[in-house]
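Request: Mind sharing a record?
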Amino acid sequence: MAMLVLGLLIFLGAHSVRIFGEGWRTATVARIGPGAWKGLYTLVSIAGFVLIVLGFRAARADTVVLWASPFWMKHLTALLMVLAMVLLAAAYVPRNSIKARLHHPMVLAVKTWALAHLLAVGVLADVVLFGAFLVWAVLDFRSSRQRDRANGTVYPPGTAAGTALTVAVGLVAWAVFAMVLHGLLIGVKPLG
């Protein structure tokens, strides 16, 4: 569990610099340059991610069940994951109404992903992992919206075509991940 927690601290810590240290970040980027900052940020993030993966595997071996979710919860989780994948797609597909309206769909996707998994799995390692990401996403969304207001950020309006493409990409991503990749990468087949 210690490796999982360390990985979360490193990974989410790096991703929290804009939440808690925007001034420090700006000064550091000015001092070392944007390329060096991105390189350092990437290395720290990868190190944290590797520790999360290894730590999560090790922590799940010592299963501590905190609660058992009802059977039907997996269906709610699957539905929430459809929403999470559409939100994730909205972060990247240009000119979609979802991003125009919500502004930070990637963070909302992380929020939805974490909540969906907390509802479905009551194992200690999962609660630590998904709970940490949920707390981070809540704080990051709030911080991002405040930064947008302070900077007067305006998001371009979405189009019907961009929004339709976003939904289609999200649905395909959900189907591929739920039916194939989740079982291969995570070892759990969420749809049976």
Observations:
- DSSP finds nine helices and no strands in the chain.
- The radius of gyration is 18 Å.
- The chain has two domains: 1-62, 63-192.
- The CA atoms of residues 2 and 93 lie 37 Å apart.
